[in-house]
Design a protein that fits this description.
About 50% of the residues lie in helices and about 0% in strands. It has about 90 residues and is mostly helical.
Amino acid sequence: MVARIVRWALGLGLTAVWWWAGLRLVLGQGSGVLEGAVVVGGWGLSVLPVHCVPQGRAAGAVRTGRWAAAWRAGDVTRASPRPRSGEVSDPS
């Protein structure tokens, strides 16, 4: 329970600092590099993909090559199948 309170307090505190820096940067006369760094840093953290997991562990992950196989399976414009990697197609 204490860890949860600390996380929330830290999050709210950092959010308040970010908003303070943003408002000071937009509205203030004496804003400078510090406010700009806080605003840009906070925005950069917001677009950081922190919830990524390896594809093998992701729920509903598509295995490698599945879309390419589906694309080839739906190709009705060719009469013969495409040659596999390393095979030579028959030109006749």
